[in-house]
Specification:
By secondary structure, the chain is of the alpha/beta class. About 40% of the residues lie in helices and about 15% in strands. The chain has helices at about 5-10, 20-30, 35-50, 85-90, 120-130, 145-155, 180-190, and strands spanning about 50-55, 60, 75-80, 100-105, 135-140, 165, 195.
Length: about 200
């Protein structure tokens, strides 16, 4: 295996990139100027050192707390619960939500050995308990595991005085927030329902 094949193989391991796309990317990099390649390599090599989870919400950030958590204009009484950090960026791109976020770090999945204790559910409960949250919007993906996680969170928060809602079914069952178009996501927020 030559160097080009190795790069194609590495790129094809990324989500959403098949062998053809990986080959196009690798060939494009061969044609790029050397300064760009060096800058790109440096950015990749320091990515995990520079970007960390926010100590409050769990979203990716260079500054802790993240710009969303530290923004005084955000509605601190609204809390949107998502599965992964990239879901925060997806929801933010719609400009429909002005509250804060809480990233679980996954979903409850007994078949994969992931229970509530492996997720950031305890810290979610603490935030609801301590931060005067009036509504928790559960934005887990509409999958079996996402629904299970939503039901677990609903039950865990039932003793606290806050409204619990779930995104409306504008997102297709089995789909991911990451791949939802902006209109569908916006309508999902507008039509969310109480649990």
């Amino acid at each position: 295996m030559n160097a080009l094949d190795e790069v194609v193989e590495s790129f094809s391991r990324l989500p959403g990139i098949g062998k053809k796309s990986a080959s196009r990317i690798a060939n494009s990099l061969l044609k790029a100027d050397k300064a760009f390649l060096q800058r790109f390599a440096q950015q990749l090599s320091t990515l995990q050192e520079r970007i960390k989870p926010c100590s409050i919400c769990g979203s990716w950030t260079e500054i802790d707390p993240c710009p969303i958590c530290s923004n005084p204009m955000r509605d601190k009484s609204l809390l949107c619960v998502v599965e992964q950090a990239q879901d925060v960026q997806t929801i933010e791109s719609v400009h429909e939500f002005s509250g804060l976020f809480h990233v679980l770090g996954g979903v409850i999945s007994p078949l994969d050995g992931i229970g509530p204790e492996q997720l950031r559910i305890a810290s979610l409960i603490q935030r609801v308990k301590n931060d005067n949250v009036r509504e928790v919007i559960i934005a887990t993906n509409p999958t079996v595991d996402g629904d299970t996680t939503a039901l677990y969170i609903q039950h865990a928060l039932s003793e606290y005085n806050c409204k619990i809602s779930r995104l409306a079914s504008g997102i297709p069952v089995g789909g991911d927030l990451e791949y939802a178009d902006k209109l569908t996501l916006a309508r999902s927020f507008q039509g969310r329902t109480s649990l």
